[in-house]
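Friendly challenge for the regulars: who can give me the structure tokens for this chain first? No prize, just bragging rights.
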Amino acid sequence: MTTPTDGTRWRNWSGLVEAHPQQVLTPTSVADVVDVVRRAREQGTTVKMTGTGHSFTAIAAPEHTLLRPEQLAGILEVDRDAMTVTARAGTQLKDLNLALERLGLSLHNMGDIAEQTLAGATSTGTHGTGGVAAGLAAQLAGLELVTGTGEVVRASARENPDVLEVARVGLGALGVLTSVTFHVEPLFVIEAHEQPMSWDEALDSYDEMTAASHHVDMYWFPHTDAMMVKQNVRTDLEPGEQQPPSRLAAWWEDELVSNTVFGALCRVGSSAPTLIPRINRLAGRALSERRYSDLAHRVFVTPRRVRFREMEYAVPREVGLEVLRECRRVINASDWRIAFPVEIRTARADDVPLSTAYGRESSYLAFHVPMDTDHTAYFGGLEPILREAGGRPHWGKVHTRSAADLAPVYPRFDDFLALRERLDPDRVFANGYLRQVLGD
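First reply, four minutes later:
Bragging rights claimed.
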């Protein structure tokens, strides 16, 4: 199961993080993972299962042994009575969606990127917007992991429920996830309504839209008053009755405009930043309205071929729009030139201790720059505003927070640390990022 390691370099998707592991292994079974972890513990080294590297932080960066997830993929069990599906944790979300579709089943909600492994997506708190459960971790009914002592622990409502409660967002600090079990539901159809709005129109109607639609996602183009608003509503249509966009329309909107043209405009903006406000105004005027219906995962997920860097914070819902307005004020007063839209989403409160939505309804504010653009001034200029509002940074996206200032915004932070001490007392799964956000 060993792959060549001489000169091995690991980089994450955005190119922000690079690591040089001393050993690369591709386990094909849970027993393989157990062997690797036990050996690492004996030798005093560390292990990281890296997933697909879609986190912008170094949360998955390996320091000694890198485990590749490719051979730990696929569905293990479908329980139609309990309405749960168990899959190997190395399965990519896009593959799970397709497999569930063939079974006539669906996850309740998800974000707009489906490249991540199930382990990576749940462990970092990946989420969508609206719905009963926005986060993937809040949809977990069970999990299996290999602890830092090499023990295989299964957790569900009946077996080790205390582990399930905390480990749903585990940051890769509690063990190597080998399988996850999701609550699922029958495959369903969503009607999507995408429309341009002005800044004032979107913010003034935001509460009304989120009350009327199951999922609302907004994008503001900095240096303009332009917004693109997406409202997704569950329908009574049966699968097969949906009316998706034509192949030409889908290619035009999702590939040509959103990726090819947008990527070209980002490259122009990177080489001539003074043009960015004008480019954003042109982009805002080019936005068009469309309606269509399709299977849920086809609506939630959109192709992302333009690489970027991202910072996202969850702030209390009641101050979300106020914080957004303050961020706009700071952007307008600066000399920054921001080519990427700012994304605005919401989530109901959940009960996952290290979820960014733990115990409170949340507004998510996400800020992006092209991957070849220095993000430090922009993200660093806005982060104090988000932090002052009680914000919690997405674990997989750029931030500068540490254990000392994260603990006060997570009421059960100490419970997580206690479980970490129990499951990984020798810090087999540690790396620099985890030492920063959890201490050591």
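The longest helix spans residues 247-271. The radius of gyration is 21 Å. Your move, everyone else.
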